[in-house]
Specification:
alpha/beta, Rossmann fold, six-stranded parallel sheet, 14 helices, about 15% strand
């Protein structure tokens, strides 16, 4: 097998989901050849691994203050995430510009999952970076696997650019149903949805990776709360769940301001810690897309606070498995939360659907390497 695969995704960042989806896709692609992660120079993304993120905007000044307050925990977190990346990925040297010089070394170019086509996620100024489309590379083997724009809506000028960039792709697959509709109906390219590659991580790999490395005094039974968008209702819902089950609440959150109903706040989990906490939780409350993915992967009971338009990725995923009722309505009350908790998820019905979607998505990747 002589395939040389260049994977372009957001992986070198301070985000558990981004790293784990990259790991899942990296491992899956490794079945078909030698894979290298494209380590792009990107000030916006690279800032995620800086101990203190300097800048002059009001947002940057607030970030500096926050980073100073949590300096010790942030330093530990970044060390742990960097260690995982170093030990699990084969990376290119740091690259600024891309072009046909890469064509000499690689046979396949694959843009990866997560919000790689969301200007909010890849730049400070909403710049639609052509490098994340492999623009400038003249190859017949450019593919998109599960690429996403998140909740971002392209302007008319951006639509023209995206059309131009995607015109060289041999196959386009995306993560959200609404993005598929956009690519098919507005850009007029064939497109299909596939599963987030976090679902490709095998059970043996999950068992190997999932280990409590740094957390002390974890209760035997607990409710896990993992928040990224920080839904305003997170604390009150956590309180209802806590009272219903009579369990302690463990919170994974790097922020300096945390929900009051948390009994244990973890700010610098390793990847192993993160997976360990999901695997062993009695119940999960999350507003994160990848938090939702790992709740399903580990077949956990979970609910999701409504985060408005940001929930499009989560809603697209839940609709596949017919469990959109896991999202808490904005006009919730205690009784409606209790009803949702008691209803639960029937994994005897859901898990076969998950397995079928994983196998279908794996066949899509297999197709990338067929002549």
């Amino acid at each position: 097998m002589n395939n040389k695969i260049l994977l372009n995704t957001i992986y070198k960042t301070n985000n558990y989901g981004a790293i784990l989806q990259s790991y899942g896709l990296y491992k899956e692609l490794s079945k078909y050849g030698d894979v290298e992660m494209l380590d792009l120079k990107n000030k916006h993304i690279d800032n995620g691994f800086k101990l203190i993120r300097f800048g002059f905007s009001l947002k940057s000044i607030l970030s500096i203050l926050k980073d100073l307050v949590r300096f010790k925990s942030r330093k530990l977190l970044i060390q742990r995430l960097r260690s995982f990346i170093k030990n699990n990925f084969n990376e290119t040297a740091k690259v600024d510009k891309i072009g046909n010089n890469l064509k000499k070394k690689y046979t396949h170019f694959i843009t990866g999952s997560d919000q790689i086509w969301n200007p909010n996620c890849i730049s400070d100024n909403n710049f639609l970076d052509p490098r994340y489309f492999f623009h400038g590379i003249d190859s017949e083997n450019i593919f998109a696997y599960c690429s996403s724009r998140g909740s971002y809506n392209y302007s008319e000028d951006e639509k023209k650019l995206v059309h131009k960039y995607l015109s060289k792709f041999k196959k386009i697959t995306v993560r959200e149903k609404d993005f598929k509709s956009f690519v098919k109906n507005e850009l007029k390219f064939e497109c299909e949805t596939v599963m987030d590659p976090s679902f490709f991580i095998t059970k043996p790999d999950l068992n190997y990776l999932s280990s409590n490395n740094y957390i002390q005094k974890i209760p035997d039974k607990y409710v896990l709360v993992y928040t990224v968008p920080k839904a305003s209702s997170m604390n009150s819902i956590a309180g209802i769940i806590k009272k219903k089950f009579g369990l302690e609440v463990i919170l994974i959150d790097q922020d300096i301001f945390n929900i009051k109903n948390a009994d244990l706040v973890l700010k610098n989990c390793s990847i192993g810690d993160f997976l360990f906490l999901f695997r062993n939780a009695e119940f999960i409350l999350t507003d994160s897309f990848h938090g939702t993915c790992f709740s399903i992967i580990y077949e956990k009971q979970f609910i999701i606070p409504d985060i408005g338009h940001l929930a499009n990725r989560i809603k697209s995923l839940l609709s596949i498995f017919k469990i959109k009722d896991r999202i808490v309505k904005k006009n919730y009350n205690v009784s409606s939360i209790i009803e949702l908790l008691e209803k639960g998820i029937d994994y005897k019905r859901v898990s076969p659907l998950v397995s079928n979607e994983i196998q279908r998505s794996r066949r899509v990747i297999e197709g990338f390497f067929k002549n």
